[in-house]
Design a protein that fits this description.
heterodimer, A: about 110 residues, alpha+beta, 3-stranded antiparallel sheet, two-stranded antiparallel ribbon, globular, B: about 750 residues, mainly beta, Immunoglobulin-like
Chain lengths: ~110, ~750
């Protein structure tokens, strides 16, 4: 009987340990894609690239993009998925075009 | 601290005087009954009878404490124990068991069920998709939800601050003012929930004008052998995996319960096979309870930690009605990423610490309850900075006395609550605030033969202070809200007919979120603005209940009417701020909520194993100040459950079948709605369930939910107003397993 009790305690200990252990997310680098958003009746989005030309904004670059003084410079005209153009210029809450915001949250995907 | 606790436990053990109380349980043919639940309700301890019908507890049972006896298929019995009585209990075998209908002598934390309209629901991990979904099977109860991640209870059309939740006696304050803030715990270790609809639960606060939900843990067991379980749940809609374990042990007047849970879910599948993006969630919880009995004195300590990270689905910038379902969904799941936290989401950390001391002496029961609840709620839209991060702590001290004097029982005490709300970020939606509430009450119950009445009064003094000098707010507010609440009622039993009438009058002080909110609330897709001129909300409710039952059929008819003056609500104005539509808190002079609930419970004589339950819930609300109706009023409904129990059919039992059930909900069209809502069409949902019993220890339940893949978005769904109404999950199956040892 004692063996059974120790076994039960062991299972409980392992279960508690696994429930309170840190998740893998804590150590992973925080990287996400961002877009310029015009918040009219239905949000219009233009995908943007990071300083190196990649899609992901990571750590400090992500923090800057999400800050209330963020400015993103568009050098070539961007087009939304509906074909709406965004001419070259500065966009974001810290720019003269502050009605445009920079968002980095994910969306559902209908491609895969 | 640890040494002190350890030494205290040793000292308590040394002074324990061992004595035994024995008893026997027989049926009407004087045959012993095995495995009867013997519940010492004042001590919250459960014993079982053995094969000889005998039971024994290692210490004295206090005089005048209540003992309840339950066994499926037998009448329940409740006795008031006296030391000179012989504990020879006879339970009558029932022709059929009409367990949920009629006045049953069961124990209730919320009061005397004969005198107060109390409903109960057992919480069974195996048979439900979620705890709140299970409660919403009760008549007059619905839920606001967006998938399994965020769910909260609606009682007779009222929710949020008006429905107060208690967990093992502690009031749960977890920013429940918003529809996207869920109930804050799971069914882990919980045995059942008691519900009072309306404001007649004086002992538990005047502010519960919609109702009180009281969740109770499984009782402690008096068993030297460790009892426990392992259980798991899976569904193929959101690919949920939920796992729980529990251990119970009791010896030499020490009792210990330990539970743990880990649940993870991806996005749920809609009827069109798309997945609602970000309806995912993670939950984990651990809780334990420790009790010790020393003669007539019992001490209980509980700790509960619950963490969850639900996604906020249906999130859009701009007008929710203009959005497209395709933008809120995914065509498939990617298991490598779609369990991961996304944005926007919440992170909720709840901690609950409870100490309870009970002393029983002759006709007196003294109870001291001290609880502390800490809620941290973070709402994230950006990855690197929360939109708000709030700590809400709630301390509750409740001394109470129960005194029995023949047919009269007197309850008096006080509830002292200290609440503190503190923002951890500069960005905030509600300000820092604190409140102090003291509420003494006095309740008298009278019960003799077939007549009884109860009457109670409570006075509350609440001091609300809001002092927030942050960048966002500049508030210095100090206001006292005081008032008296009343409840009175009677019951009368005439042969098989039972009549019960209750009147209750209560009030609710405005919450600091209603007074001072100012900011974007991503969970509701709104910019919300409070009104610091809001006044107290008053409610008067009349509740009449008629019950009749015989051996095979039982009915309950429950009409009610509630009149609420200065009703606090939130309404849209023609303004946009920070790209969200602005909603202002406002107050309506007069609101009426009337309705009737009807229950039918039937076992045909030819087929006793067939169990038919049907409930009708009709609710009509009227807002005398507005052409529009009230927000979040659930549609009228008919709920039907047909269950066939295979026990007694040897040929079927050998294939491990336990029962089969079908559950059907019909929701009528909802054409009474608020300005920002729209008409919701009628719908039907059918769920099938098959119970399997491999042996006494291993049970399995297979469910097929939304059998006909109905496309529906309930009127009170959190995402009803988004993209024309985001549907609830399409057809999916569940596999639930539980192993008990």
């Amino acid at each position: 009987m004692k063996k059974v009790n120790y076994l039960v305690m062991g299972v409980a200990f392992l279960a508690i340990s696994s429930m309170t252990s840190c998740s893998k997310d804590d150590d992973a680098e925080l990287c996400h894609e961002c877009h310029i958003a015009l918040l009219d009746k239905s949000e219009t989005k233009w995908e943007i690239l990071n300083a190196s030309g990649g899609e992901d904004f990571c750590e400090d670059e992500l923090r800057d993009a999400e800050s209330s003084s963020a400015v993103y410079t568009v050098t070539d005209t961007l087009y939304s998925s509906d074909g709406i153009p965004l001419p070259p210029g500065e966009y974001g809450p810290g720019s003269a075009n502050s009605q445009y915001e920079i968002h980095c949250e994910d969306d559902g995907d209908h491609d895969h | 601290m640890k040494k002190l606790l350890f030494s205290s436990l040793i000292v308590m053990n040394v002074f324990t005087i061992y004595s035994q109380t024995k008893g026997i349980i027989l049926d009407d043919n004087n045959k012993p009954i095995n495995q009867v639940d013997i519940y010492l309700s004042d001590q919250n301890i459960l014993l079982y009878s053995d094969g000889n019908g005998e039971f024994v507890t290692e210490s004295d049972i206090a005089n005048n404490s209540y003992i309840n006896f339950y066994k499926n298929g037998y009448s329940t019995k409740k006795i008031k124990y006296t030391s000179n009585m012989t504990l020879e209990i006879v339970l009558n075998k029932l022709h059929v068991s009409l367990d949920e209908v009629g006045i049953s002598s069961t124990h209730n934390k919320l009061g005397n069920s004969k005198l107060t309209n109390i409903e109960k629901k057992s919480l069974n991990f195996l048979e439900s998709n979620s705890m709140v979904e299970s409660i919403s099977q009760l008549n007059g109860v619905d839920m606001i939800s967006s998938g399994l991640g965020i769910q909260k209870v609606v009682v007779r059309g009222l929710s949020g601050m008006r429905v107060v939740t208690y967990l093992n006696g502690m009031q749960i304050n977890n920013q429940q003012w918003a529809n996207d803030h869920g109930i804050g715990f799971t069914d882990l270790g919980l045995n059942e929930v008691e519900l009072i609809k309306g404001s007649s639960a004086l002992k538990y606060g005047s502010e519960a004008i919609g109702g009180v939900l009281y969740f109770k843990d499984h009782p402690f067991v008096d068993s030297k052998k460790i009892k426990g379980f392992l259980s798991t749940k899976f569904n193929n809609s959101s690919y949920l995996s939920s796992n729980q374990f529990g251990i119970k042990w009791g010896e030499k007047n020490f009792y210990f319960n330990l539970y743990g849970q880990y649940a993870i879910s991806s996005d749920y599948r809609l009827p069109n096979s798309w997945y609602l993006f970000n309806s995912r969630f993670k939950q984990n919880a651990i809780k334990f309870s420790l009790a010790h009995r020393l003669k007539n004195w019992q001490n209980i300590f509980r700790y509960h930690r619950h963490t969850e990270a639900p996604g906020i689905p249906g999130h859009i910038h701009g007008d929710p009605q203009e959005s497209n379902l395709i933008d809120l969904t995914s065509s498939s799941l990617d298991f490598s990423t779609d369990y991961d936290t996304s944005r926007p989401n919440q992170v909720v950390n709840n901690q609950l610490i409870i100490y309870e001391s009970i002393f029983l002496q002759n006709n007196l029961k003294f109870n001291l309850y001290v609880g502390h609840f800490i809620n941290n709620l973070q709402e994230w839209e950006k990855w690197t900075k929360p939109a708000f991060d709030i700590d809400l702590s709630n301390t509750q001290i409740s001394p109470s006395v129960r005194y029995n004097l023949g047919s009269i029982t007197v309850n008096f005490g006080s509830q002292i609550t200290i609440l503190n709300n503190k923002n951890n970020e500069i960005d905030r939606l509600v300000p820092d605030a604190s409140s102090f509430n003291v509420g003494p009450y006095f309740i008298v119950d009278y019960e003799k033969d077939d007549f009884g009445f109860n009457s109670g009064i409570r006075y509350d003094y609440k001091n609300l202070k809001v002092n927030d000098q942050s960048e966002k707010f500049n508030i210095n507010y100090d206001q006292v809200f005081s008032n008296t609440s009343l409840s009175t009622g009677f019951y009368y039993k005439f042969i098989d007919h039972i009549l019960r009438f209750t009147y209750s009058g209560a009030y609710r002080a405005p919450h600091f979120s209603e007074l001072f909110s100012d900011g974007v609330h991503h969970g509701t897709n709104r910019y919300e603005i409070g009104d610091n001129q809001l006044k107290i909300e008053y409610a008067n409710q009349f509740d009449f209940k008629y019950q009749w039952s015989n051996e095979h059929i039982g009915i309950v008819l429950n009409p009610f009417a509630q009149y609420i003056s200065d009703f606090i609500s939130i309404t849209p104005i023609d303004s946009i701020q920070d790209s969200y539509k602005v909603y202002n808190y406002t107050q309506y002079e007069k609101v009426e909520i009337k309705g009737v609930e009807f229950n039918l419970h039937y076992h045909p004589h030819q087929l006793h194993n067939l169990h038919i339950e049907q409930s009708y819930s009709f609710l009509h609300t009227k807002n005398k100040d507005d052409v529009y109706g009230l927000a979040l009023v659930p549609a009228n409904s008919i709920k039907t459950k047909v269950l066939f129990d295979f026990n007694k059919y040897e040929k079927i039992i050998k294939y491990k079948f336990d029962y089969i059930s079908i559950y059907h909900v019909y929701k009528f069209q909802q054409n009474s709605y608020a300005e920002y809502e729209s008409l919701t069409p009628e719908y039907n949902v059918i769920n099938l369930q098959l119970g399997l019993k491999f042996n006494d220890k291993l049970h399995c339940v297979l469910s097929l939910n939304n059998l006909f893949n109905e496309v529906y978005s309930p009127h009170i769904s959190r995402v009803r107003g988004v993209a024309g109404g985001v549907p609830n999950p399409g057809r999916f199956f569940n596999i639930n397993l539980k192993y008990e040892f």
